[in-house]
Structure formats: structure tokens, C-alpha cells
Amino acid sequence: AQKITQTQPGMFVQEKEAVTLDCTYDTSDPSYGLFWYKQPSSGEMIFLIYQGSYDQQNATEGRYSLNFQKARKSANLVISASQLGDSAMYFCAMREGLTGGGNKLTFGTGTQLKVEL
Amino acid sequence: KAGVTQTPRYLIKTRGQQVTLSCSPISGHRSVSWYQQTPGQGLQFLFEYFSETQRNKGNFPGRFSGRQFSNSRSEMNVSTLELGDSALYLCASSPQGDQANEKLFFGSGTQLSVL
Question: Is A108–B42 a contact, with Cβ atoms under 8 angstroms apart?
Fold first, then answer.
């Protein structure tokens, strides 16, 4: 079974509108962390937001927020007030074992977001 | 503060050759990880080094190897290149690699083409 599932290969959004990118995960480890990264055409992966499995509140970082539903094993990224510069590939990733687990991340297949005027 | 630097940016090799990719982490970061990105397989973890020791390893053949130097710089080597090794190789660094919410900072990658 896929550990990280992103079911939207491509998404379009109008500038200034909000968009939600879906991510579901599968793990039996009670301790895990969920990340979202952005990859523009230049190739570099840019960290956006993090959510720990024991965090009580949904994470927010500026225009990015994470809609974390633990029982449903989903961690959707919400981008508010989309900008043209948000056009990129977005990856959801998971680290299992919160402490001492090293930096092994499992990535989803990504969602290509296109922001239109 | 300089980011993660990967060299070279592009490489073209032929089947059977070997290649070495270099990664300089952010100053002070001791954990360096390598990932392979292909259109077919997506992003896959290769290995992680911390304090010159391999701490984690992904599911790749022994042709893929790496090392880390005392200044935390890392190299990865691929021997006997195959066409399927064509990929973007991304390096990531973090301070320790053992904290729950520790971010990974990625470089721009090395695009390897095997002909």
C-alpha cells in the first residue's frame, strides 16, 4: 500500500482564491511527522509546513495551513490568496518515528498547481 | 547563510561509466540525505549520513554508495551506470536529523542523464 497518496495530479486555481491540495497517509507508527514541500521548475524543494502526529492544533505558516484529520489519516494543504508564484509541484511527505529516526522521508507523487489570472 | 549546494548541476554519462555527485550542506548541519527523483518512481530515499556514518539506507542496489567527510560535505557515487539511473538527484541537509519537526533543506539537485 502507498504510504502517502496524493490523488490530484493537477490543479488549477484563480489568482487570489484559496486552494486545497489533498494528502492521505498510511502508517502504524503512532509517532510521525507530515511535511509539505513545493518544487518550482528550478528543481529545488522548498519547505512549506510541518504537522506532528501529537500536535493538537493545525499548523499554519503564513498563507499555508494544514488541515490535519488524524482519524481519517489526511493532511491537506490549504493555500490562501493564491499568487502566480505559487505555480509549482507540491509534495506531501512523512517521517515515521519522531525521535532518532533520521531524515528518511516518504514522498507522495505530487500535485502540479497552476495559478491563473 | 548559504543554502545547500550541489555540483555539478548537469551531467551526461554513458552506460557503464561511474559518476560522483557532490553536496555541501548548510553550515552547521550534520545530517545529509540523498534522494532520487524520476518521472516514473517519484522521489525515493537513497541514504542518510550523520557524523561521517551512514545512518539510514533506502532500497537501492549496491551500485549506489555515498560518504560524508568531517566537514559534513557528502558525495554519492553510482558505478556501472544504467539508463534507468537517469534522474534528478537531490541532496538535503538538517542540523541533527533527530528532531520531530526538523526541516530538511534541499539543494537544486544534479540532473544526471545516462545515454
Answer: yes
**Bridge partners of B43?**
B37
- What residues in B contact A106, CB-CB < 8 Å? 45
Residues from chain A contacting residue B108 (CB–CB below 8 Å): 42-44
Write out the three cell numbers for A44: 529545488
Residues of chain B with pLDDT under 70: 1
- In this structure, what is the dihedral angle of CA atoms B99, B5, B35, A73, given to the nearest 10 degrees? 40
Chain-chain contact of A105 with B104 (C-beta, under 8 angstroms): yes
Please say whether the beta carbons of B12 and B4 come within 8 A: no
CB contact under 8 Å between B48 and A109, yes or no, is: no
Residue with grid cell 494543504, as numbered in its chain: A77
Residue A52 corresponds to which amino acid? G
Q: Are A6 and A106 in contact (CB under 8 A)?
A: no
Pairwise CA distance, residues A114 & A105, whole Å = 25
pLDDT digits (tens, 9 = 90+) for A75-106: 999 999 999 999 999 999 998 876 656 788 99
